[in-house]
Design a protein that fits this description.
Layout lengths: L9 H10 L24 H25 L20 H24 L11 H19 L6 H4 L11 H23 L4 H20 L2 H4 L7 H32 L17 H5 L3 H9 L18 H85 L11 H8 L16 H5 L9 H24 L1
Helix pairs in contact: 2-3, 2-9, 3-4, 3-9, 4-6, 6-7, 7-9, 12-15
Length: 466
């Protein structure tokens, strides 16, 4: 007896694949893939290699042009080694440099837009620089500026303004001037970046002057070799500057370093982001192996440190301790001043209370003297009357035995008890129960103490007036 078995469906195959051996390891997961900013080189040797590679490319293009322009062989493609116009090796190298500059500006933009104190949105400069470098890169390899001949052909202009190259150079000059002014503000307080920017600006100006042979006269500066070399050199310097700035911003962001814009000094670090997020072992090892003498070279005021991270931590810890010590000293000084003021106000209050009590005792003594003087005079008169009455009443009933003291006690008016005037002190507990002391600052507590002393003085004046 035969039975027909169904072929496994696609869903069953997928389930079997999930239950079986995995096709990819965990490193292929999205969370384990590198981000764009992870592509920023951390070691300065990579930037040195970029500078050397760019210099070798410029030198190679110029030497290839010089050695191939005199060849008379019609089969040799000498146009590939030209240094002017698109479609040659020199234009391709310039296009790659501009493309690297555009990518570096994007890297800076991805990090720079998260800066805490950039309230005016100056980070957009790097996005504009990326777009500007991208357009120049496309034009260097394709000659895109020739499209300007379409509107220029419909107008009648004089000789240099009827060419697309003239208008293209003018537009590039305006764009480069705008970017230079913005970068000058961006790199304020960073001598290394300003040095690179100054060098690239000088080379760019020289490259612009080399294209003005009709104005300044023909010379070695106005040759095609000089024009191409200066343009590529300026582009290489700007590209290097952009990537070094990306590295600096990346390292500052990972360390949690912030700078105050007005004073230009480093403030206290909150926490290292690298420690909070937990860098993997390979990245920490790469940072520790990095040559310390190349670290933060663009800041001339930084010292060379054998162990930059640990020394920086010790410096920050020492700075934090000094700030805490100064705050504690100021706090204790304020407490001592407040204690002296409180003691002086308390002594004044005690003296006022003593004066009030002394005045009340004097008034009580005066009242008692008046009462006793009145009682003495009335007692003498009554004693004389009792003596006369006693002599006349001797014949009365002898059964009544009353002494002179008893008669005097019965007929003597009672001395009024001394009126004790009590002065109640000011109730401080009732005053403090009205407020929540846990939510008050030192300044508010100082104000409340002054208010309490003022109420005490008013209370003492009322007691004195009573």
């Amino acid at each position: 007896m035969t039975s027909t078995a169904r072929a496994p469906s696609k869903k069953q195959k997928n389930q079997a694949g999930r239950e079986g051996v995995r096709e990819y390891f965990d490193n292929a997961l999205l969370e384990n893939q590198p981000r764009l900013t992870d592509l920023i080189p951390k070691s300065l040797w990579a930037y040195l290699a970029l500078l050397l590679l760019g210099g070798i490319s410029i030198y190679g293009c110029q030497q290839a042009f010089l050695h191939t322009r005199a060849l008379q062989d019609s089969h040799f493609p000498s146009h590939l080694f030209e240094i002017a116009g698109p479609g040659n090796l020199a234009s391709w190298c310039l296009s790659v440099m501009l493309l690297l500059l555009s990518v570096g500006a994007v890297m800076v933009y991805l990090l720079r837009r998260h800066k805490a104190d950039d309230y005016k949105g100056r980070y957009r400069l790097w996005l504009h620089l990326a777009a500007f470098a991208g357009i120049l890169s496309v034009d260097a390899s394709t000659g895109l500026h020739e499209l300007l001949m379409i509107p220029l052909s419909q107008t009648e202009l004089s000789t240099p303004w009827d060419q697309a190259v003239t208008w293209w150079i003018a537009l590039v000059t305006l764009g480069a001037s705008y970017m230079a002014m913005r970068l000058l503000l961006e790199f304020k307080g960073r001598p290394g970046m300003l040095t690179l920017m100054f060098a690239s600006t000088v080379v760019l100006i020289a490259a612009g002057c080399s294209r003005l042979g009709n104005v300044i006269g023909e010379s070695q500066l106005t040759t095609e070799v000089a024009q191409s070399s200066l343009t590529m050199s300026a582009t290489l310097l700007i590209c290097l500057m952009t990537w070094l700035n990306a590295r600096k911003i990346y390292r500052n962001a990972q360390r949690g370093v912030t700078t105050s814009g007005k004073k230009g000094v480093k403030s206290k670090r909150v926490k290292r982001v690298a420690e909070a997020e937990g860098l993997d072992a390979e990245q920490q090892k790469a940072e520790s192996v990095e040559d310390p003498q190349w670290d933060d070279w663009d800041e001339f005021e930084d010292e060379e440190m054998a162990e930059p991270v640990e020394s920086y931590d010790e410096f920050e810890q020492q700075e934090d301790d000094e700030i805490e010590y100064e705050e504690e000293a100021e706090y204790y000084e304020e407490e001592e001043l407040e204690a002296e003021q409180d003691s002086a106000e308390h002594e004044e209050y005690v003296e006022q209370q003593a004066q009030v009590y002394e005045q009340a005792d004097q008034e009580q003594e005066e009242i008692e003297e008046v009462i006793y003087s009145t009682y003495a005079s009335s007692h003498e008169n009554q004693a004389e009357q009792e003596q006369s009455a006693y002599a006349s009443d001797q014949g009365r009933d002898a059964t009544v035995y009353e002494t002179q003291d008893e008669l005097t006690h019965q007929t003597t008016p009672m001395i009024p008890p001394p009126q004790s005037q009590s002065h109640e002190p000011f109730d401080e507990d009732a005053f403090w129960e009205q407020y929540d002391l846990t939510k008050m600052s030192r300044k508010q507590l100082k104000t409340m103490r002054k208010k309490l002393n003022r109420l005490k003085r008013k209370h003492a004046e009322k007691q004195r007036a009573a």
